[in-house]
Amino acid sequence: MTAARLRHGDPVSIEARWSVRKIVLQSEEILSEHGVPIDGATRVTAVAVVRNPWIGSRVDSDLVTPVREIAPRLAKLLTDRVLEHIGGSDRVVAFGKGAIIGTDGELEHGAALIHTPYYANLVREFLGGDTVIAFADDRGDAGTSLTVPVGRKNAGPTRNHFQTIVTRVPDAPRPDEIVVVVAASSGTRPFPRSGDRTTDQPVVSADLEGMFQ
Predict the structure, then answer these.
(1) pLDDT, one tens digit for every residue, the chain (213 residues)
(2) Distance of CA 44 to CAs 128, 132, 212, Å?
(3) What are the distances in angstroms from CA 163 to CA 97, 123, 147?
(4) pLDDT for position 8
(5) For the range 142-145, what are the long-range contacts, defined as Cβ-Cβ under 8 Å and sequence gap of 24 or more?
(6) Residue 8 to residue 155: CA distance in whole angstroms
(7) CA atoms of 211 and 204, how far apart (whole Å)
(8) Residue 125 burial class via C-beta count within 10 angstroms: exposed 0-12, middle 13-18, buried 19 and up
């Protein structure tokens, strides 16, 4: 199965799962803010714990060939989980991505899985977006948490969708694993009122003379 043929809802083959140890779905619904009840967003992270295919390799080793085989399948696997939980791509308004690399791996190993078109382009397509996906990555021991930024999935001037979702898997990543994340939200921050680029006044340092003395 190639990346071009993948569609939301297609089955994932056994071969596609060979490097996946577990999948973790974490969800929260915001019901109140500062004591005020709200009909808030559902915020979801779908996480795959995968064996790092580059363990023991040199820092100049090829990363592209394994990425072609693994990243598209991970993109589909995780977005399927998100869409099933959140209720379809029409309900996703903001998205993000991330990776935590186990201590035996390079930071570049995580970047190879989540930043190339084999992952990012497909996550964007499956979730119905058209803009850059906010991201976070880190290296750490099992139980390391990752604060994943999410932003509006469609290009626009609003900053109401800027928010973060924290995800953590207690027993991952092991030293030879990578935790791969898709994050999504069905709404904005509670009571957003920080303006946007259509109403912002231009601000340059010359206009703030005296503030930096």
Answers:
(1) 333 444 555 554 434 335 899 999 999 999 999 999 998 899 999 999 999 999 989 998 888 888 999 999 999 999 999 999 999 999 999 999 999 999 999 999 999 999 999 999 999 999 999 999 999 999 999 999 999 999 999 977 688 889 999 999 999 999 999 999 999 999 989 888 888 888 888 888 888 887 877
(2) 16, 19, 41
(3) 13, 19, 10
(4) 54
(5) 142/169, 142/170, 142/171, 142/172, 142/173, 142/174, 143/168, 143/169, 143/170, 143/171, 143/172, 144/100, 144/168, 144/173
(6) 22
(7) 12
(8) middle
DSSP structure class, residue 169: B
Structure tokens at 144: 């390391």
Report residue 121: phi and psi, to 5°.
-65, -35
Cα–Cα distance for residue pair 42/205, rounded to 1 Å: 39
What span, in angstroms and rounded, lies between the C-alpha atoms of 201 and 135? 28
Q: Report the pLDDT value the prediction gives residue 195, as an integer from 0 to 100.
A: 83
Write down how long the chain is.
Answer: 213
Please list, residue by residue across 25-58, b when 16 or more beta carbons sit within 10 angstroms of its beta carbon and e when fewer do.
Answer: ebeeebeeeeeeeeebbbbbbbbbbbbbbbeeee
Asked if residues 153 and 140 have their Cβ atoms less than 8 Å apart, the reply is: no
Tell me whether residue 134 is exposed, middle or buried, using C-beta atoms within 10 angstroms of its C-beta: 0 to 12, 13 to 18, 19 or more. buried
User: Is 92 within 8 Å of 185 (Cβ atoms)?
Assistant: yes
At 16 the pLDDT is 38
At a CB cut-off of 8 Å and minimum separation 6, what does 159 contact? 192, 194, 195, 196, 197
